[in-house]
Design goal:
With 167 residues, the chain is of the alpha+beta class. Helix content is 20%, strand content 31%. The chain has 3 helices and 9 strands; from the N terminus they run H-E-E-E-E-E-H-E-H-E-E-E. The strands form 2 sheets. It has a 5-stranded mixed sheet, with helices on one face. The protein has a 4-stranded mixed sheet with strand order 1-3-8-9, with no helix packed on it. The longest helix is centred in the last third of the chain and has 15 residues. 38% of the residues are buried.
């Protein structure tokens, strides 16, 4: 990933933690590490907006207390809805948006019971309800992932982590 950053000299790097999100029209590299958590990236090549979040749990369930504002991104469904609303508010058209879904590993649980699988299912269901196009995904399995997202190009680089690597 360092070689990738060398291709973009002067590009700022932002580390994304659990519950964090970034929306930028300026070129930015965003890095995060996922286990059962999910990240969805949003990219509009027309406006050059890029966005990404790192969500911990699948469903918000009315607990955020800040509907309709950017902020806390720990729930997959709520994070998607917030970014979509903000991107539309900034003039991004639905048809110009490309989404990518990552994460949802189930290293510690049976595949059908793990929170990772639920995060992935909710991400795809919510994106479908929003009528958004998913152009790539790397989800599930038993290995975490390290992501590097370039907001201005929409590129996402994924490195699979060792299954025994604690997240």
């Amino acid at each position: 990933m360092h070689r990738l950053l060398e291709r973009h000299p002067g590009l700022a790097l932002r580390q994304l933690g659990v519950g964090d999100g970034v929306l930028s029209q300026e070129p930015l590299a965003v890095s995060t590490v996922l286990g059962s958590c999910v990240s969805v990236t949003f990219h509009c090549p027309v406006t050059r907006y890029g966005a990404i979040f790192h969500a911990l749990m699948p469903v918000e369930g009315g607990q955020s207390g800040r509907p309709g504002t950017l902020g806390d991104y720990k729930f997959v469904d709520d994070a998607i809805r917030r970014f979509v609303a903000e991107l539309y508010r900034r003039g991004v058209r639905r048809g110009d948006l490309a989404c990518k879904v990552f994460g949802g590993a189930n290293a510690m649980f049976a595949e059908q019971f793990g929170v990772g699988r639920k995060n992935v299912v909710v991400a795809f269901e919510t994106l479908e309800r929003e009528r958004l196009r998913v152009v790539a995904s790397d989800v599930g399995g038993d290995r975490g992932r390290k992501l590097l997202f370039l907001t201005h190009t929409g590129e996402v680089f994924v490195k699979r982590l060792n299954p025994q690597c604690p997240l």
